[in-house]
Design goal:
Largest sheet: none
Structural class: mainly alpha
Mean pLDDT: 81
Number of strands: 0
Strand content: under 5%
Helix content: 55-70%
Radius of gyration: 18 Å
Shape: globular
Order of helices and strands: HHHHHHHHHH
Number of helices: 10
Oligomer: single chain
Length: 192
């Protein structure tokens, strides 16, 4: 069990890292997060923050280790944002490494666990659409997983839009763009 002091020090390092990120000092922020994890290796806020930073900075092995640790820590607990973040992170790692079948499994897991109207579910659908388009375009991983060419079930409005735009614009920009047209508003609202 962790000492209260270790948890407080890890929280302090993580809070300081957030401030450093806000002013664009990513290297220093990563150092503070690493210090937080040295003090308390299971400090969830530091893990949630450092995984994506490792991925963005080109350290996929470190990012993968963080996302896998988060999943191990919260195994058997469904519906947590932590599982969604970790699944999306692992999907992104597999996508970047060209493992489309594995990436599809992680993106599908994120969609299954995240609330349907959440930004995380949208990111999962964008990942699924990205894979479907890559596979249909002849990605080498398609030979090992022909099932990736089939549309996933359930087929939702979010996936239809994601397939059409294939990740060219971000989800929030997409919704803003759809709001400009009456039909787009219906699509953005999920058909309501």
């Amino acid at each position: 069990s962790e000492e209260p002091e270790a948890s407080e020090r890890a929280s302090d390092h993580t809070s300081y890292a957030e401030l450093l990120l806000a002013v664009g000092r990513t290297d220093d922020a990563v150092a503070r997060l690493e210090e937080a994890l040295r003090v308390n290796p299971v400090h969830v806020p530091a893990l949630l923050r450092i995984g994506p930073l490792y991925a963005m900075r080109g350290a996929p092995a470190r990012a993968r280790a963080v996302f896998e640790a988060l999943l191990r820590m919260f195994r058997g607990v469904n519906g947590l944002d932590i599982q969604v973040v970790a699944s999306l992170g692992l999907g992104d790692m597999d996508w970047a490494e060209g493992r489309v079948a594995e990436a599809a499994q992680w993106y599908n897991r994120a969609v299954d666990v995240a609330p349907a109207d959440s930004p995380q579910a949208t990111l999962g659908w964008w990942g699924i659409a990205k894979i479907a388009l890559a596979v249909r375009g002849g990605h080498p991983g398609a030979d090992r997983a022909p099932w990736l060419r089939s549309p996933p079930v359930p087929f939702t409005v979010q996936e239809a839009v994601a397939r059409l735009l294939s990740g060219l614009i971000g989800p929030h920009a997409l919704v803003s763009w759809l709001q400009l047209d009456p039909c787009g508003r219906v699509v953005a609202s999920g058909g309501d």
